Amino acid sequence: MCLAIPVQIEQIHDEFSAIANIGGLKKEINIALVDDLQVGDYVILHVGFALKKLDEEEALRTLALFAEMGIDVPAELASDAELPGTGEVVS
């Protein structure tokens, strides 16, 4: 399944990559499309790319809706995946 989901930024490596917390699962993501990110910010993530910044309330509300629908966001992302534009596989 391919969803755009809210994730929280845990570490920022540089202007292109960061580590996001996705329900306890940590994944490296591409943040090049979003300006002025800080640790603790929420972003919408789609196929490995942060698309826009969200406020915490909106992010938590969206995650609650996914839970109500029975969508386990970390399980959807738990499989190995290639980082966009890098060829690097992460798990």
Notes on the structure:
- This protein is an alpha+beta fold.
- Helices cover 20% and strands 38% of the residues.
- The protein contains 2 helices and 7 strands.
- The chain has helices at residues 56-68, 73-77, and strands spanning 5-12, 17-22, 25-30, 42-46, 49-54, 81-82, 89-90.
- The strands form 2 sheets. It has a 5-stranded antiparallel beta sheet. Strands 6-7 form a two-stranded antiparallel sheet.
- The longest helix is centred in the last third of the chain and has 13 residues, at 56-68.
Let me know the largest β-sheet: 5 strands, antiparallel
What is the CATH topology assignment?
Answer: SH3 type barrels
What is the count of structural domains?
A: 1
Helix content: 10-25%
Q: Give the N-terminus to C-terminus distance in angstroms.
A: 17 Å
In the predicted model, the low-confidence regions spanning at least 5 consecutive residues are 78-85
Mean pLDDT: 81
Figure out the total of helices.
Answer: 2
SS-derived structural category: alpha+beta
Radius of gyration using CA atoms only: 12 Å
- What is the strand arrangement across the widest sheet? 3-2-1-4-5
Pfam families: HupF_HypC
InterPro entries: Hydgase_assmbl_chp_CS, Hydrogenase_HupF/HypC
Family: Belongs to the HupF/HypC family.
GO molecular function: carbon dioxide binding; iron ion binding
Give a nutshell description of this structure.
With about 90 residues, the protein is α+β, with helices and mostly antiparallel strands.
Show the helix and strand layout.
Blueprint: E1 5-12, E2 17-22, E3 25-30, E4 42-46, E5 49-54, H1 56-68, H2 73-77, E6 81-82, E7 89-90
Antiparallel strand pairs: 1-2, 1-4, 2-3, 4-5, 6-7
